[in-house]
Every structure is written in C-alpha cells, then in structure tokens.
C-alpha cells in the first residue's frame, strides 16, 4: 500500500540539488523560508501564478525533518471537517479559542480551508477517511496505530516529497542546508534574505519573502519567554527544527508577537518519556488525566481537567516545575475513557513500557507515588462528593464538565502516572493578517513580508488553548500568502481557480 502512494514521489530524473551559491545571484519574486507544508504550498502556488519562487530549508538531509513530516496528516478544523460550511467552521473556532482568534484569520480558514484541500489533491495528495478519529481528510498512507514516529513513507512525508518534485518541475528549487539569518529591508519593505550554508553567507534578493520555519518549540530562550519557566522539563514531541529564527528576524524588522497567552499544542505525557523513547510521541495519557484528576505532589489539584489535554499540558508547562504533576485514576476510568481515542493508554501505555503505580487505596497510592497522603485523600474525597452532587464547578479548583465528563474515583485498584507536558508546536508567533502579511507594532502590514504555518500566531490558542489545526493553517495561509504576493508584485488580483499539477 505504501509503495502505491510513494512510487512516483522521488523521480530518478529529478534535477541535481541546487546550492545557495547556485541561486544567490538570481532575481526571485518570492523566497520561502522553510520547506514544510506552508513554504511548499506557497512556492508551488507562486509558480502557478507566474512568479519565480524558491524554498530555503535549513535541514541539509534529502529527507529533512520538519513539523509536516512528523504530523498525523489530518487536514481539519478544530478536529472536525475542514470542508464544512463557513459559518459552522467560524463557530467552532470561536468556541474553541473562546473568541480569541483574530476574525480575519478565522475567516480565512473558514473560506479557504476547503480550497486548500482541493489544491493539495490537485497537486497529487491522496486523502482517506479515518473513522476512529472522525477525520475525513487524512493524508495517505496513514501512520500505523502504534507508538513511535513511523513517519517516513507515510502521507505527510509523501506529500512533502511530492510538492518538492512539483516545485522542481515548475522550475523552482528547494535548497537544503540553507539557514536564513536576516531579512533584508529597503525603504520599509522586505527585499530579500541573508542565508548561511557551510560557514558561507549569501544575500538573496526578492520582491517578497515568506517566513514559514515552523515555530519556536526547539528554542529554549523563546520557550522560556513565552511558554514555560522551565522548558527543559517540557517533553519535545516534534521534529526539533522550530528554532524561532523566523520570529527573531521578523521582530528585528518591526514585527511583533501574537497570541502571548496561546501556549502550544501538545499533550500530557509520562515523565518516563524523557528517558524512554518508546513513550514519545505516543502514547499520551490525556484521557486518564481528564476523566480523573491531576495533582501536585502535595496532593492538591491545580487545573480544570475538563478543558482537555492540551489545556492541562499548558497549565503544567507554566508551573515552576512542570513535572510536579501526577495523573490519578481508578479502574473504571482505565476500563472506560482510558480505552478511547486513537492509541489509547489502555492498553498501549503499559505495552510500551510505561509504568503505572497501583494500589488498593488512595492512601497507599499516595505513599507509592510520593504524594502527600493526607492531602490526596482529602482532595479525592472532596472531588468525589462534588462530582456526585453535580457541583464540580464549586470545587476549590473548579472542574468543568461540558467538554469532558468528570468521573469520581471510587473503584480500586487506583492508578497513578508521574507526568510531564509534551509540546508538539507553539501556537503563538508572528502576527499576520488574513492575507498572511506580517504586521508591525501598529498592526499594519510590512510590505513584501509574509508568514504562514506554525511560525505565526493569532489563530490557535486563547484562554483554553484551543487547537484549530496545524496542517490546515499551513496550507491555507501558504496559498493566501502566494496569492497576495502576486497581487503585491504585479498589481493584479490573483486568480482563485484550482489547476492540476
């Protein structure tokens, strides 16, 4: 099955790899910084519109790491169908981000998410429906339902190769090993970049530049600035390529950060995952923590588990010690919510080598997990009483039930998992408008400068860490960036029609 999708994605007749030296002296219309979904969509769309576009990718390998390749491959909006009616999508985004998403960014996804799927299909993407997750547009072939990465030769990787081959066929280049370090400005407009390769530095000029380098989840200093006081205790479940170069460059020329409270998309992981690769990026233990509870080692709850795993992971990351967290559940939760979702902790977690602390009483469980026993018993008793009476919103730390029901901890044996937050990608980033134009401190576009994908902020996040969708955001704003750049460069509106690759 993999061979059927993969066979034609790496043609032996493909042109030799271009180097920075080869392309530095050529005039470009659009330089795309980053070879993931956003950069490849924008560069291919630019060539369709008659622009000369190039992609500069920091990864030097033929099969370089990036967020897109490591993703699950679903093109969705708020975990639902991206091709639903516009008003339905807008309402989902308003709900999940509690109204924090910029209206023009939400409107762009609602309007053009469907078109992004159609465009990708025309470029050679194959989609399947995965009933278990409710996703209708998952890149094929899908990743296997087992722990570990298993990304090579799967849908997202196949698409990256396909888009790279399409770009080469159109006359563009995907230059690997090219790390962009500076944006060139003239009279307030972006006119190119400075890029390095092998110790040499090159200046490339262009009429527009797109920053799409995948966020800053692999940058300890930016993580500390925007996400967590202790980023070394946040488990990376990502490609480790998002170093924040794009944001630093944009900030240096007057751009600013959007979504300061947005945090990141991620999950609740076992603390053992730092030492055991079998436990990252899957399985995560969100369903156990959110049906049961998560406590400090002093035995007290500190967050609303009913808001979901991404919200709880962000709350953990904001702690002085993000690993001061223990997931508590009982047999009923293990046998019920623990078996749901793709790659559920029951039975995947123990089969992957994960350690569950078990006991027949809460007091004994506390002793084995290193938790204050008196406080944990009191916390559980109070929690159970409020849940039983339907008053979980009156708990010392209120527990919502609209999204995820609360389960009392009544049925031994009881379980505990020492936990840590796991980050997939950052949801805050470069401020853009609905055309993917980078905004300055006055919220005005910087001429010739665009950004898309995980490098940007303002869509995902909000007070409850609402996740809109990584690949859908990258594809939609990659296309919109290329189309606006065409208008900016030529003075004529870009056509919206979809054509086969």
Strand content: 15-25%
The fourth-level CATH homologous superfamily of the largest domain is FAD/NAD(P)-binding domain
Number of domains: 2
Broad shape: elongated
What share of the residues lie within helices? Answer: 25-40%
Radius of gyration: 23 Å
Q: How would you classify the helix and strand content by structural class?
A: alpha/beta
CATH topology of the largest domain: FAD/NAD(P)-binding domain
pLDDT averaged residue by residue = 94
| Count of helical stretches | 16
Please give a structural write-up.
- The protein has 501 residues and is of the alpha/beta class.
- The protein folds into 2 domains: 2-260 and 427-490, FAD/NAD(P)-binding domain (3-Layer(bba) Sandwich), CATH 3.50.50; 264-423, Flavocytochrome C3, Chain A, domain 1 (Alpha-Beta Complex).
- It has 16 helices and 21 strands.
- It has helices at residues 2-6, 20-23, 37-48, 67-70, 86-96, 103-122, 155-170, 220-226, 245-252, 286-291, 309-317, 331-335, 345-351, 362-369, 373-388, 470-490, and strands at 28-33, 53-57, 76-77, 80-81, 127-130, 135-139, 173-176, 179-186, 189-197, 200-211, 235-236, 257-258, 264-270, 293-295, 326-329, 357-359, 414-426, 429-431, 437-439, 445-451, 456-457.
- The strands form 5 sheets. Strands 1, 2, 7, 8, 9, 10, 19 and 20 form an 8-stranded mixed beta sheet that branches. Strands 11, 13, 14, 15, 16 and 17 form a 6-stranded mixed beta sheet that branches. Strands 12-18-21 form a 3-stranded mixed beta sheet, with helices on one face.
- Strand 3 and strand 4 form a beta hairpin.
- It starts with a helix and ends in an 11-residue tail after the last helix.
- The model is unreliable at 1-15 (pLDDT under 50).
């Amino acid at each position: 099955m993999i061979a059927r999708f993969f066979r034609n994605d790496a043609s032996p007749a493909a042109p030799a790899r271009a180097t920075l030296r080869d392309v530095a002296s050529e005039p470009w219309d659009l330089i795309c910084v980053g070879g993931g979904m956003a950069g490849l969509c924008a560069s291919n769309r630019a060539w369709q519109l008659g622009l000369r576009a190039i992609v500069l990718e920091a990864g030097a390998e033929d099969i370089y790491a990036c967020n897109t390749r490591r993703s699950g491959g679903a093109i969705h909006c708020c975990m639902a169908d991206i091709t639903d009616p516009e008003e339905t999508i807008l309402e989902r985004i308003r709900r999940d981000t509690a109204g924090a998403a910029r209206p023009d960014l939400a409107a762009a996804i609602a309007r053009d998410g469907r078109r992004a799927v159609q465009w990708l299909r025309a470029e050679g993407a194959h989609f399947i429906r995965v009933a278990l997750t409710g996703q209708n547009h998952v890149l094929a072939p899908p990743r296997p339902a087992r722990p570990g990465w298993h990304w090579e030769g799967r849908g997202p990787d196949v698409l990256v190769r396909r888009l790279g081959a399409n770009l080469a066929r159109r006359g563009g280049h995907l230059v690997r090993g090219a790390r962009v370090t500076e944006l060139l400005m003239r009279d307030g407009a972006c006119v190119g970049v400075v890029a390095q390769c092998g110790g040499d530095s090159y200046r490339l000029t262009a009429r527009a530049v797109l920053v799409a380098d995948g966020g800053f989840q692999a940058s300890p200093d930016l993580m500390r600035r925007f996400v967590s006081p202790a980023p070394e205790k946040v488990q990376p479940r990502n490609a480790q390529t998002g170093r924040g170069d794009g944001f630093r460059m944009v900030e240096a020329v007057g751009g600013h950060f959007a979504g300061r409270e947005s945090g990141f998309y991620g999950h609740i992981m076992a603390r053992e995952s730092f030492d055991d690769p079998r436990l990252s990026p899957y399985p995560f233990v969100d369903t156990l923590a959110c049906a049961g509870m998560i406590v400090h080692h002093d035995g007290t709850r500190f967050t609303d588990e009913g808001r979901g795993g991404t919200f709880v992971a962000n709350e953990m990351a904001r702690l002085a010690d993000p690993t001061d967290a223990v997931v508590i559940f009982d047999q009923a939760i293990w046998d019920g919510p623990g078996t749901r979702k793709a790659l559920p902790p029951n039975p995947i977690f123990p089969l992957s080598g994960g350690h569950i602390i078990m006991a027949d009483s809460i007091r004994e469980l506390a002793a084995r997990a290193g938790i204050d026993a008196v406080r944990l018993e009191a916390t559980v008793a109070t929690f159970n009483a409020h849940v039983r009476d339907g008053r979980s919103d009156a708990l010392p730390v209120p527990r919502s039930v609209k999204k995820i029901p609360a389960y009392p901890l009544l049925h031994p044996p009881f379980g505990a998992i020492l936990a840590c937050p796991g980050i997939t990608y950052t949801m805050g980033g470069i401020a853009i408008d609905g055309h993917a134009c980078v905004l300055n401190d006055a919220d005005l576009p910087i001429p010739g400068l665009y950004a898309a994908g995980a490098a940007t902020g303002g869509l995902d996040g909000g007070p409850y860490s609402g996740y809109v969708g990584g690949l859908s955001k990258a594809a939609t704003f990659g296309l919109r960036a290329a189309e606006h750049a065409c208008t900016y460069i030529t003075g004529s509106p870009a056509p919206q029609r979809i054509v086969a690759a």
